[in-house]
């Protein structure tokens, strides 16, 4: 039984954990099984291999850790760097901040590029820092692809270009937690060295898998990386992988079957291209709604607009947390809090994972009602109408129902 | 795997089968068990007893048959009547028509009160027929409480009054398939003799249980009823019930646990009064939307408006089936077909079972998009806005989240 | 939560409802969907067609009713016979008795062949009765293929031969509730006219589907059968079927997906031949155990031994119900009661549905413990050892793991 | 669909992951929800608090990490120790060995007490090492409570006494992965400083939660521990905990609901004392079977016998892996491999988690069949009979069914 039950379904519009499709719940509804049986490697191999398609890589090595995305962050850093190594990292929002905090706690020296919350990384500053680093003391550039706390997406191709122009050999490490599987990600083309995600985002699964891809260059760096590592060590992982048992410790049987079902839904049933287009479409509709309400999105330029989450800035007279509270208490709508320094100033609409047009429109209608309740002079239906207009133009027929 | 999979959730807005809450799915996710074990009667007794609360009766005897609602119809008729017995029954729509067809096939003589589809039973005609029946040849008046094909609800208190005024002793039998558990039902107060429902409607469960309550007068009639009956025989049922084994044949373990969960959600978690108010609220919002679209509801007077389903009449230039098709093919929205003679002329929006405000608003937004696609000059957002305005006024805080 | 919870799994060894495999539970773990959507007929058609393979027929028409097996009985009788029609039916045990009781209540005239419980039908008597019926007043011979209350299986080929030798045109109707899908069934070869089963037996599903196959001859008889029928009427069913909507009333979405999964497991994953061999093997092992305990099986000749359930006769000094009680109270083992006149004299071990060798051996070990508890001088391990010896010889490698 | 499907249930007798009860699967069969909603802390707090009861502590602080038990190991070490710190650790089997390997990789200096596989830690050697460490360079004694690879359980009370007698202030850290929740564990009484377990063992859940309790002394040590830590850092965890949000990163909603259900089953439904007695009973029966087969258990003295897993030593002429293979290929029985240096020499029977007597007897019958297949002269039924004899004496009535 739920703790605060309500009739009908919960409208889950936080940018993770996301809504789980029935096919995934079904596949996870099973007893444990012996992970050392002759049966298990077939499943293991299939998901370890196929997950690479989400990252757009054929050359990388993939790792699946029983952890949240935070564990994947740690794995990326500790397996490629040595204590005291210098990292360049922009601080664009809360998740950048937490990752930088982790870098510091893990004994790296971080050269932070401070950004306004709502902006992407300033490429000119990045370029300058790289060019000034003549001795190549900087070992890694760590980028959050999509900063979930503000709804800002960086242009990874441009960042790659910046490193190239500065002729800097630093590793390019990317937090793709809220982007991989929902947004175009071309690991090989962009020469990303480490990219990572978590199961509770675009994969539309429970939390519990940290998924990581490492380029050949990252694996080479691994050989010389002196950071202390245990649970998240790539070497141990690869030893098990290469022995054919695949896992250095007991994996979650259910999560691996769930991942298989999730990959099937994304890669086979809907198709990754269609998944990405759907995220773009829902995001576009959401932003149209925000504008219709007379509000602004947190991302300050269209080029930074996120396809998976929209930060909505409320007027100074309002507390965004009141919007969130009333949405939950009256309409069973779960919106994302403003985190860190934008708490109370924004609320977030997640449009990530297994979602469709009418789910979004219902949520937007709920946001309007919540805004009205807190005294914001919203025209009921205005945002919905604006979103509908965008969706009417962009939504294709469902492929299986042509 | 589904046959025609689509991203996100299906928006199920047919008036049954309805959306199943997680708590019910969880309770049904179980192996079979021995229905003759000492454990099973506790469960059986609890649901057989508690189901009466939905009907508003303390004096009736309840029956649960493994069947659809159609089987419950047959059980009601065959257990109380004899071949050739005369029945008065209004034909207000498709379900009335099917029930009347069943009566005929079961060898009863039906005096049909023909109604316009969209209207409730004409009480004056009913009264006249009863008064003219001096010898009380009419043994039963059979009323569909809520005609699901048109969205018309009869006033059972008024019908009771009509029988009383005509001093007619006929049994009052009520099809409450789409009303019981969602709409006020006062079996004892209205002296309904047999009332019935099915699990896939207000109970928000899979199809599979026909549930029936019989008044003491109905049980008395049963003693003299000469219709041939086997599977649906009350006598066999009560023999098992009274012996403490409860079931004359193997019941569905899963459905009984599901029924327990459903009754808990309705009676304990939300409260029957709140469930009924919620249905009224969603229905009111739906009709506001229909009016905003410039369309009319099928029910011709407000007194007949149904709290569980709204029939929407499309202009003669349009085919309602096209609206339904595009809603399903593009927006994964399942709307109800127009049945029988209103096929193509109306589509139906079910707002029955475990549903909430934002689910409805999402569906209404989808109807608007579908209407636009078929060429109807709908103002996007107009119906949603009208519905929001009603909901904003009427929706209470969720009780568990005050 | 269960009503009488116990650690570990329940050992379900009643002859129905049977154990449900995970794959079936998974497939049923789903929301309702619109049964009138364009998607649903694909599922409907596939199960209505494939179910015929279990009956061994290509010529019959299959029907799936939302009911228990009892409903299927009624459907068989009422759709082929007229009131007062004469039926020959052996009474070999409780299920024969209940069916005969139903026939009587449904206004048929039953010429009962009384059998000792534990024996199959006496073919000589059957032949004599048929030969004496010169005017062919007997319209049907109704046989329970496997009498679940005693563990006795009739030889349908021999019964067919008996009808043929008597040159009697009566319909041959067979209750295959506990046999179809577990035991060889050759409807076409044996010219069975109506055969039926239920979902909670060999199909290893929840109760809720009555499944029936009717031969062309039975369909011809249907045209002239004057029995009153409503819910179970073949004509209405076929009208819906032929219209492409398939169902005259709301079907259970979950049960149809479950049936699809069950048919896949039986027909594709394991293979019907292997399923049948497995049932034979488990039954043989069970009987070996019974003999090792110094007890006798209820079936009085090996030719009548059932492949799906074994009745175990306890010595007169013991009450079989005590064995059942202690098995359930101490070892969470569910055994079948002795029904009707053998209550207290036998207990039954069901070995039907999704079961394997070690599940059976665990249950046999539990029976030994229960026998010891009630004072029967059983040698612990003796029955298990005898069963193991049989299984060791007969059990093949699991096909998928060769 | 499973990869190597087989009829009936898999007999899962590895010592983890263990069998998941239906009540836990039901509770986990749910969509994601917002872990930052006002509802979530109620659930979080309840499980974080109640988990302490399994450890027998009221004074410790509990931590739940999204990881396997290996992650909990790392968390214990890194949060209490500094690089280069000296640890005493016995190497009694594979899990001791892996933990020691982890200690080394994490930069600790391990003084290994080598043990014969099959023996517990030699307390005299431990005492001597502690007494010789006059300067208290040794900061921790790390003990695997139950060595899962050999089925050997250490006497923690005696180990505590040894530390006390040596007046050594080292932290006592205990791997309770396969013991906590199944075996008596008195953290407070034994003054264990850090104890840990994983969800896939006695808790009978999927893998995915590393659960850890730290004594006040361990928390004090944490303040001075200089090891580098990120994901598994107690400080970050407690910051979140104390803020009322509870989790420093996205937790698994499903696993926390599952943990709630598991704790309810253990603490409320069965009762921890009864759970422990059940494990002891099943272990005793298993060892009786092994002796009846003429084989020996891996644990060399009864005082070391494990209540959760039995290592069975096969004669030198046999390969234990052949037993395991045939059990899986023919009887769908999953036995534990011999790990590391006992590979091929032993197989393991796990009797841990949600299991009962007849499940075990079925598995023992399966082991006999497998032994016979590989040519070992086992008397079929002999082990089962020996186990039955023990169980008959010790098994109580199921509490809910008295």
UniProtKB/TrEMBL annotation, chains A, B, C, D:
Required cofactor(s): pyridoxal 5'-phosphate
GO biological process, one term: glycine biosynthetic process, by transamination of glyoxylate
Positions that bind substrate: 348
N6-(pyridoxal phosphate)lysine: residues carrying this PTM: 201
Enzyme type, top EC level: transferase
Annotated EC: 2.6.1.44
A Pfam match: Aminotran_5
Protein name listed in UniProt: alanine--glyoxylate transaminase
Source organism: Ceratodon purpureus
């Amino acid at each position: 039984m739920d703790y605060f039950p309500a009739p009908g379904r919960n409208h889950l519009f936080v940018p993770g954990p996301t809504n789980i499709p029935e096919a995934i719940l079904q596949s996870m509804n099973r007893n444990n099984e012996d992970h050392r049986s002759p049966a298990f490697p077939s499943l293991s191999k299939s998901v370890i291999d196929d997950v690479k398609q989400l990252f757009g890589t054929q050359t990388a090595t993939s790792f699946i850790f029983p952890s949240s995305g935070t564990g994947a962050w740690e794995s990326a850093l500790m397996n490629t760097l040595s204590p005291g190594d210098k990292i360049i990292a922009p601080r664009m929002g809360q998740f950048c901040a937490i990752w930088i905090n982790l870098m510091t706690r893990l004994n790296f020296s971080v050269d932070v590029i401070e950004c306004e919350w709502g902006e992407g990384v300033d490429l000119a500053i990045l370029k300058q820092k790289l060019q000034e680093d003549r001795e190549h003391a900087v070992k890694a550039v760590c980028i959050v692809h999509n900063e979930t706390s503000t709804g800002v997406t960086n242009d990874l191709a441009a960042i790659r270009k910046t490193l190239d122009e500065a002729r800097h050999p630093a590793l390019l490490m990317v937090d793709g937690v809220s982007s991989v599987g929902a947004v175009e990600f071309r690991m090989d083309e962009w020469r990303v060295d480490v990219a990572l995600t978590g199961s509770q985002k675009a994969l539309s699964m429970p939390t519990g898998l940290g998924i990581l891809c490492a380029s050949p260059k990252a694996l080479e760096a691994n050989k010389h990386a002196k950071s202390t590592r245990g649970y998240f060590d790539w070497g141990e992982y690869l030893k098990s992988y290469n022995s054919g048992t695949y896992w250095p410790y007991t994996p979650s049987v259910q999560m691996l079957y769930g991942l298989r079902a999730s990959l099937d839904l994304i890669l086979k049933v809907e198709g990754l291209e269609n998944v990405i287009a759907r995220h773009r479409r829902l995001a576009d509709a959401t932003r149209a709604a925000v504008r219709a309400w007379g509000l602004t999105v947190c991302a300050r330029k269209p080029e930074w607009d996120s396809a998976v989450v929209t930060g909505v800035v409320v007027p100074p007279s309002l507390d965004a947390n009141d919007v969130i509270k009333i949405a939950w208490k009256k309409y069973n709508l779960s919106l994302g809090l403003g985190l860190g320094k934008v708490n109370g100033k924004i609320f977030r609409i997640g449009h990530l994972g297994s979602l469709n047009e009418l789910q979004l429109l219902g949520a937007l209608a709920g946001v309007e009602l919540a805004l009205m309740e807190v005294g914001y002079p919203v025209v009921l239906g205005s945002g919905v109408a604006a979103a509908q207009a965008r969706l009417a133009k962009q939504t294709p027929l469902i492929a299986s129902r042509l």
